[in-house]
């Protein structure tokens, strides 16, 4: 069976397009009680971008903190705050920030229309009611969260996305000007998330011409950004992120992402840097990709955290391995149907020990 693939229906791309956000939301503001909730990364508190948010009438500016990657408990709290703010369901949710803020906005828009805790919906296609209208404005490029059908959450039992067609944004606004001001290491780590999406998609057994078309273009753009220092690098990275996301949506990521989930679940290491730490150990699986990644790292003089697992007891290491090996489709994509014989617990443990 082939997947019937839903995509984001409305996209604006261009420098300064943030100024059109008010116009985009106008049609959604129907009735006197209609209000928008702007879910904004609190890194922008008091910054010029915050002053440019088109707040009107009863709109709510909801600043969110992303020091920790999104947790189900935090999503539930934010939903409760919106419900306490107004008995009326918001007309729309607008996420402004990196992958974390965009994922929070997705999850909030789903949970406003679905009962219970967000932890109940971690998995595939467990959501029954469509989300509140939601739009995203990325301020950091690489995750592909702007176009993916998932919002990745850490719950009490697992780190797993709420994957559904309803998770997809209704609108995205890609303004490369908003990437200015991202700290350099963060720019690199999140950019590498995209590059690794491409490598894992292109080298996977699930690869097909659809994913290849997007993955090759995205990898090419990453090379222009990270090896050639193209003057249009923000515009290019924004499109690389989008294309990288499109590529994995019709294939899958692989070993690096599986291992990074273990790092994140046990040590709270953030996605981009966690992928870099894991990828650096995967020369056997992705020789060319890892070589090029190291070239990029050297060119930009980026440090990589080392020995992150050295103080872990064996129970924690086991938990990491269990988390990583539980992501069956990722391993199947990476190593084929015989993956479990190729990536044994011992081999995964050894990779973690080296990180
Ligand atoms: P992030 O959103 O966690 O942000 C990283 C840091 O950069 C934060 O401190 C943030 O405040 C700051 N920042 C963001 N934009 C900035 C700007 N313009 N200027 C200055 N600082 C800025 O980082 P990320 O790598 O974009 O996202 C990681 C998150 O995305 C993780 O939670 C991960 O699980 C998730 N993710 C989701 C998907 C998906 O498909 N839904 C895919 C990959 C990753
Ligand atoms: Zn990723």
User: What is the makeup of the main sheet?
Assistant: 6 strands, parallel
Number of strands: 9
Q: What general outline do the C-alpha atoms trace?
A: globular
Strands ordered across the widest β-sheet: 1-9-6-4-2-3
Number of continuous helical runs? 14
Low-confidence stretches: none
Brief digest:
With 355 residues, the chain is an alpha/beta fold.
Write the layout of secondary structure elements.
Layout: E1 10-13, H1 21-26, E2 36-41, H2 48-51, E3 60-64, H3 72-85, E4 92-97, H4 99-111, E5 123-124, E6 134-138, E7 150-154, E8 159-163, E9 171-174, H5 184-202, H6 209-226, H7 233-249, H8 255-267, H9 271-279, H10 287-299, H11 314-325, H12 328-335, H13 339-342, H14 345-354
Parallel strand pairs: 1-9, 2-3, 2-4, 4-6, 5-8, 6-9
Antiparallel strand pairs: 7-8
Helix pairs in contact: 3-4, 5-6, 5-7, 5-9, 6-7, 8-9, 8-11, 11-14
The structure holds nicotinamide-adenine-dinucleotide and zinc ion.
Residues 143, 193, 197, 257, 271, 275 line the site of zinc ion (ZN).
Describe the structure.
- The protein is an alpha/beta fold.
- It contains 14 helices and nine strands.
- The protein has helices spanning 21-26, 48-51, 72-85, 99-111, 184-202, 209-226, 233-249, 255-267, 271-279, 287-299, 314-325, 328-335, 339-342, 345-354; strands at 10-13, 36-41, 60-64, 92-97, 123-124, 134-138, 150-154, 159-163, 171-174.
- The strands form two sheets. It has a six-stranded parallel sheet with strand order 1-9-6-4-2-3, with helices on one face. It has a three-stranded mixed sheet with strand order 5-8-7.
- A hairpin with a 4-residue loop joins strand 7 and strand 8 (159-163).
- The longest helix has 19 residues, at 184-202.
- The model has no long low-confidence stretch (mean pLDDT 97).
- Nicotinamide-adenine-dinucleotide binds at residues 41, 43, 66, 69-70, 97-101, 103, 139-140, 143-145, 148, 150-152, 178, 181-182, 186, 190, 193, 270-272.
